[in-house]
Design goal:
The chain is mostly beta strands. It has five helices and 32 strands. Among the domains are: 173 residues, Jelly Rolls; 65 residues, no CATH class; 66 residues, no CATH class; 68 residues, no CATH class; 68 residues, no CATH class.
Amino acid sequence: MPNYQRLTDRVLAPSISVNDIVHIVITGDTSQNPAGSSYKASLSQLASVIGSVGTSGTDGTSGVNGTSGTNGTSGTNGTSGTNGTNGTNGTSGTNGTSGTNGTSGTNGTSGTNGTNGTSGTNGTSGTNGTSGTNGTSGTNGTNGTSGTNGTSGTNGTSGTNGTNGTSGTNGTSGTNGTSGTNGTSGTNGTSGTNGTSGTNGTNGTSGTNGTSGTNGTSGTNGTSGTNGTSGTNGTNGTNGTSGTSGGGNCNIQNTLIASNSGTFYVPTQEENGGTQYLTFGNDGCGWHGCPWDFMANLKYGLEPLRPTEAYMGVPSPVNVRSGDSIRLCGNVFAITSSSYQPSFVAALYLFKCDDLGGLIPLTTIIPPTYFPITKYAFCFDVSHTFTQYYDACDIFYVVGFNVITDEVSPNGARFTYTLNYEKDCSISDGEFYTLRNCCEPTVTEIIIGSSLTIGSFWSDAQGNCWEIESTGTTAPNSVRTLVSNYASCASCITSNPCPDNSVITSCCVDGAEYVTGSLGLTIGDIFVDDYGLCWTVSSGTAAPITEPTITIGTTGYTDCLDCLNTNPCPEFWLIRPCCQDLSMEVIQIPAGTVTVNDVWVDTNGICWEIFGQVTSLPTNYTITLVTLYVYCEDCLATNPCPTDIYITVRKCCDPLVVEVFLSSGSPTTGLVFSDLSDVCWEVISWSLTGTTTISPLVANSQYSNCIECIEVNPC
């Protein structure tokens, strides 16, 4: 990229008058560009604006002060909105019913017994098949004189027999009829209570008796002699196929993250029933083993932890996946005599290993949740479902408690809790895939999937079109259900037209961004993004997006104030690179984290100097400062300047054309320029990694926006 002359290198004007002119951008005029329109203005016009300030209304976010006029009387600050009541936890789902037992097969009807002939000498009894469980016996008829037994019929597969009934009185044996075939056994379901035994099949004609043994001494006629030893019972028939199991299968895998009990210090001077502090652990023992006395201040937004306080975090031993949940529950004992309704507060935060080194920002997982204290001891239960992924042992949970009271010397509180991770087993682990949006190619998302083909094209369940670009190890930041495969982006878009993009307005400073319609936002939505910034969706637009990295963190807030109650505004700072080939950027930083002239290194290993606070939206949302240094020289000694930077640009005349080229320096994000072939390009982002798609572009001229560039260099 060329080296442009800086303002500080120019010669100071020898004199100025009120008729001299300057270049201004009117941000409220979007006729030339969504970011504002360029005009000239005389110094006399500016002088009329920089006059005495009238009576101040409620303070907005401070911009850079001009020459101060006479301050009017300050407007009265509005009172804080009342916190909403916590929603009631949903009831547990009903267990599925047990599967129905299969009905036992019906036994065939018994054959009619033949008339028994006169008893001869009984032979040795034949070997009996193994008996199934007998059903209830009916009363036997009177036996006739025994005749020769008929041949036994083939036994059918035995049904499940019921309990034996009481035997009837034996009559004189007649000749047995041919045995009927037993009914086929019913299919066994999952065992519950046994069903009623099926009816016994008809007895077949008895087979011929073996040679009779010698008769014992005859008793009185009619009374049967002692029966011979019973033969071995026949083998039972094969059981039917088991019925389908009823409910009760476990689909959640639980992992205990932490379990702790003890006491915590309750601070004084709580105001308006809202918490200004949270207790995280003990200043000498961390999160476990000692009374909790370490407090974090929430009055001006949650203050970060210092490196020496990192042991307030509980390490996570499991991978955190989108769709899984974290649950904090327990009980508290607290005695209070507050003049207003006292409350117990529970909250959960996390930080990552990358956050260690400097001040440690905390990401809100479960915002401060209030439980009215109506009795001394009570239970609490809060949870959160994740919408992104974290690697095992890379994140640390921070549990926070407090009791809200206006007592001068409040009593301490006693607590016990468990922190449990709930993995949804219905969600597969799969692989990580990078998807590129067909309608807005600057937008990429990482999802979990399985056996997807690189270079294939898909529509998702919401009708958005994507190209499967690559696989990787970076944790997913989105969840997409892919439903239909296409030959190209064009064929997918033909069946699934591109949605309008969304115009989102910041809840913290004046300014708006255009984000992809694939986020599924609707006008009026209030949400916090994954950077912790609150937005309201003001309209739709067919214009190209201005920020591809914004994704939805949590939605469903009632208004900006509701969102800001749990996601306070950060500060916006202009930072200057320690490396000469890079450009200045505006970034968001947690309030109270930095001061002017601080030197920090970011997560990419690039060193920056804090230049000044501004009241405009970031030019780069992805820069995160991690470690503080004294001077640029100290930072560069361990973090040398990068030599290769991948710059992503979008063609102004065809926003679907996005290219990446390699450069030794980075232009400012959002810069518009024409190349040596008079083609207009807009800089979307830059990175230290990437894949080039075109040869390096050389800037010929710079412009305020694409419209201005195209006027000079028509498409």
